[in-house]
Amino acid sequence: MIAAGRKYVFDFDSTLTRVEALDVLAELTLKERADKDAIIKEIQEITNLGIDGDISFTESLERRIKLLNANKSDLIPLVAELRTKISKSIAANKEFFEEYAADIYVISCGFKEFIDPIVAEYNIPSNRVYANTFKFDVEGKIIGFDKTNVLAMHNGKIDCLKNMNLDGEVQVIGDGYSDYVMREAGIADKFFAYTENVHREKAAKNADYITPNLDEFLFVNDLNRKISYPKNRIKMLLLENVHPDAFTSLSEAGFTVETITHSLSEEELIKKIKGVHVLGIRSKTQVTAKVLEAANKLMVVGAFCIGTTQIDLESCKKKGVVVFNAPYSNTRSVVELAIGEIIMLMRSVFTRSTEIHKGQWNKTAANSREVRGKNLGIVGYGNIGKQLSVLAEALGMHVYYYDVNDQLALGNAIKCNTLEELLHISDVVTLHIDDNKANLNFIGEREINQMKDGAIFINLARGFVVDISALAKALKSGKIAGAAIDVFPEEPAINGDFETELKGLENVILTPHVGGSTEEAQRNIAEFVPNKIMDYMNSGNTVDAVNFPNIRLPKQNKSHRFLHIHKNVPGIMAKVNKVLAEYELNITGQYLSTDNEVGYVISDVDKEYNKDVIKELKKIDNTIKFRVLY
Predict the structure, then answer these.
(1) Is 491 a catalytic residue?
(2) Is 352 part of the annotated catalytic residue set?
(3) Is-catalytic flag, 560?
């Protein structure tokens, strides 16, 4: 694995650290100045001009030092601040700098006075740090720099590296064009544009490799690293205008994330899914068996909603694709809308509002009733139904519920043994049932006829669970006094024209599937689902997976983790352990969870092992997916 004779030359500013050190020094020395922000902005502009080669580095340095007005004593807090600004992936891979200490150098146009103490902590001694030095007056004020140093001159890094006369392959890792010129001059063999902290187009377009972090650099060079696979190589596709917080959290974690504001058709998704490891959708995109067949790298589907009928869960399971959803994140939003619609329909607010908009004044108490003392029938007493039960009771309603599963009543809610019983006694009927296909037309003409005359009906569940034609007929006849419908049997993939038999009917509130669409709910979903995705990708946890054996794994402790997904047939565990025994691996922990179709075995092993064991584990019959985490 170790490449003999290879030398690694690192830049300091915006590479080893997340910042430009002179910018930080400016923040410290100018903090009392009223014009601090303007001066810092000017310093940053001059820095970028020098880095991109648009002005000579000597000029860049002279102009910045003049603006700094710094003292030798300012270097102590500067070093302390820089210690907190080490690049994230550099800090995570400190072992690399220890293991390859003899082959690592720093060439920087910064200053040894603050670079030496920082890199010393990464096992890089002062004699392998090539940088400028400050000049001070008798009072310690920084008045300039050593202009005889080659690094104080234009393209000084070329002469510096040339004078070092390094043997073997020389690789330069830096963020700026001034780093690339060493490759351009032919004295470095490869240039890696380091973009973890800043992406400089001029450097990136000339690079042999663009490396968003040190993990990528180590992966390309097949060097020991903190994580098994660079996160930037894991591609995530988020569709349907998923809340931007999801993009932020996933991209900040290092993953490569693409967003598309609308849903994709099956044909479009088949073309797009190739090479994608994680797919994020809401309710409109259909993840079919054909899509999954084309998904050559897919590991996770994240449903940024409650329902999962748009996903072929069985096909996902057979392909070893784990599915997560957000069953709780928008519960409150749906419940608040239901409460609001109950009140508006009972008071005929929507009808009165429409009349006013048409220029009609119709002050009347007819068909306007309080909700207090009325019977609310909740069909589906899950997370939403229970929370609605509590809030409705607080308004003075008598709550009844029906659920096919045994559910514990909250407060004074009364369980109905049959749907018919609930429909007979309810002034308001609200649906909160799941997306089981058996619920097609769950409420039809027969069920509507069992309701009270003049009842109110609300559906915030699934569009296909209500026979819309039967509901429209009941509304027109007056059997149902009012309705609020948020979901429809067929919904368009994009915003635009929409037709329904319910359009234009009196005391009917129609909304475009927005029950869970509040800013708060979407933020909650954009936090919950990405956390589940990252937990699975980073550790193998499947807690709350919809289609997969659930297992909560302990944190890895200086081990490599083998994740083996297989068909649930007899003997797999024995075969896994036989392979591990043949290669004399020390197992520090092992975990298994299964369902009727798949098994999921996780083995934590000591770091040192023959890598051929991975090939053998993948060869085991009935293996669906295998990966290594560390």
Answers:
(1) yes
(2) no
(3) no
